[in-house]
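We store chain and fold; thus.
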Amino acid sequence: MAQPTLLTLPVELITTISHNLTAVDLQSLRQSCKAAAEKTSVCFQERFFRTRYVMLEQQSLQNLIDISEHSTLREAVRSVALCIDHLIDPRDYRGRAQLRARGVNDEDDRVRLDDGETVSLGDDTPGSINMGCYQEAWAEYMAFMTKKLHFKHLAQAVYNLPHCRKVSLEDAIRPWGAFRLGRRIGTLPSRFVTDALPNSVLHAMVCIRTLFVAVVKSRLPIEELHIDFGTGMAGCTAVFPRILSLPRELAQAARTQLRTVTTLHIAINPYPRDNKFNPMYYNGLPVTDPLRNETADWTEDFLRFIGLFPALSTLSLYFFRRDEGYQFPRLSRELFVPHLQSISLELVDCTRSDLMALMERHKETLRTVRLESVSLLGGSADRWSSVVQSFRHDFSVRKLILGSCFVDRPWPTTDLPEKMYARTPQELDMLVAELLELEKSDGSTEQSSQGGDSTETSPAGESV
């Protein structure tokens, strides 16, 4: 009696119900009868095929190829996420306990038990996993990569996904291939990118290049690119500019094909000492590869990468683990994105003048500004109200978001609320008034403690 009652409901309601079912329950419902499968097809495709997560492993990429050749499912895919999951060279293998002792840890790693997954993180010490199967899987991986089949497979799959408009490199979700591999070897693949695991940084570089090759060869009008890994894990690195360097021919092809990319989100490591590629990896690189250039310049490397996207209009920069004046002063003077309409900056310490210099360079096109955990160095308590006043009177900003921003001074410190929004000139005026009220008491305290005189200082300690 329950079945016909459920199936007489509107498709929209069935879709809502289906979204709240576990993967196993949804599968059971779909297998109950043909009508149930038809009425849950929208939810099924949205949930499992709108974004496809894959890793650089033969079966994982073959699965994506199979989807791309399916007459219905290929139409549902809007985004392809290449996940950083990978096997560690058996000679360098370390379990989570060993890595934790070296400061490398992922507290947020969870197994999707609600989706019916049976692989647990469990004991992954070398003596507890199936090392024979592990070495066999490693040999298969190396053969696959040595033949450069990873380039061919991903490009072939993306080429056949007509509605795919977003590609990404990330570590937030474990792909199906990682769980399949985990069941075979007894432990989940690593998703750490750290010097503690020698082949992990090399793997990240290969992932980046594989993604760009796929975009170039597919000739799809990709609109969004996201690169975000390493930010939720201790002892790991986010991407750094040097590793984004592409071989000359690939870079030239990318500049042509990436003319459709309008949105770039990138979580990036701002530390100069990390912007290097270990010479131990040079053996597999051509002598002309830019990664062999030992003279690393963070800003030049980054600007060269940004130059690959001539139509870029939305830029999101997440500095991990916070740019404490390392890169932003120079970046604010040299970064120019001709069509920039929306910018997001997160985890930055900078002077007001550096921040506004970057904004001024884009004032003709800039319409949306989002600043998260941005600290204005030095200066008086009214730094943020003056910033918003500039946006109100000197720019054509239609949306301003401030989140957990503050003024970093000896004492006292003005902390802004967690979220502050303004979408119209009137709301900008209200935001200025709110900020002035917040800064009022702090400013009077500052005047009594500093004689009412203050200057803005740069990270190098120079007055601005």
Summary: The CA atoms of residues 286 and 292 lie 8 Å apart. The longest strand covers residues 314-323. The chain is about 40% helix and 15% strand. The longest helix spans residues 425-450.
